[in-house]
Amino acid sequence: MRWQLTDKALFFAPWQSILTLKAGSLEEYSLLERWGEPGQAPATLLLESFFQSARWLIEASSSFTLSCVPLEIDYWNVLPGLKPGERFCAFLRVTEHNRERVRFALRQGRIPPGKKAPGIDLWQSATDDDGVLTCALAPLEQWYLPLDRACLWQEIYA
After folding, report:
1. Which stretch of DSSP H or E encloses residue 47?
2. DSSP string spanning 76-102?
3. CA dist., res. 80 & res. 4, Å (int)
4. How confident is the model at residue 3 (pLDDT cuts 50, 70, 90)?
5. For residue 1, what pLDDT band results from cuts at 50, 70 and 90?
6. CATH number of the domain at 8-152, out of 3.10.129.10, 3.40.50.970, 3.40.190.10, 3.30.70.580?
7. Residue 34 DSSP SS3
8. How confident is the model at residue 23 (pLDDT cuts 50, 70, 90)?
9. How is the beta sheet containing 17-23 ordered, strand by strand?
10. pLDDT tens track for 59-95
11. Is the pLDDT of residue 36 over 70?
12. Residue 85's closest CA among 36, 39, 18, 43?
């Protein structure tokens, strides 16, 4: 089963940055309830949202020839999981890029129900990063059909 953890790309600059939005689903909100935790999407799903956003940035920037595999998370300021109605914003900025790997600075935020996502200016002007993710580049065809990913990207970044 593959979960869609990037619902919408709000901003995209090839090989530079991406801002994505994740809304929790009912299934995600109920994951922790089975173990007596409050109903919320687990924080690990938010980290996975960062990784999926990184993958979208690489795939769309490379005209769907490359993808990426996580190598290292240097640090990450863990947010509590999403509560029902909340959304998660993930902003990734490329800080280092070569033929083998890409390093991203991560910024994150939770959006309360009924509130608009902050514009790209707020994310680009922030000075504190919430984490660092390093990914290895790899051919996209190892995991996905490039045309399928290109079609899905058109839905996410419409």
Report:
1. helix 43-61
2. E-PPPPBPTT-EEEEEEEEEEE-SSEE
3. 19
4. low
5. very low
6. 3.10.129.10
7. helix
8. confident
9. 8-13, 17-23, 87-97, 101-111, 131-139, 66-76
10. 999 999 999 999 999 999 988 777 778 889 999 999 9
11. no
12. 39
User: What is the total residue count of the chain?
Assistant: 158
Q: Token pair for residue 133?
A: 């993710």
Helix (H) or strand (E) holding 5: none
What does the block give as tokens for 42? 């687990």
Mean pLDDT of 17-35: 73
Rg of the chain over Cα atoms, rounded to whole angstroms, equals 15
The Cβ of residue 123 has, within 10 Å, a number of other Cβ atoms equal to 21
Which amino acid belongs to residue 148? Answer: D
Give residue for tokens 């953890």: 5
What tokens appear for 35 in the block? 């173990």
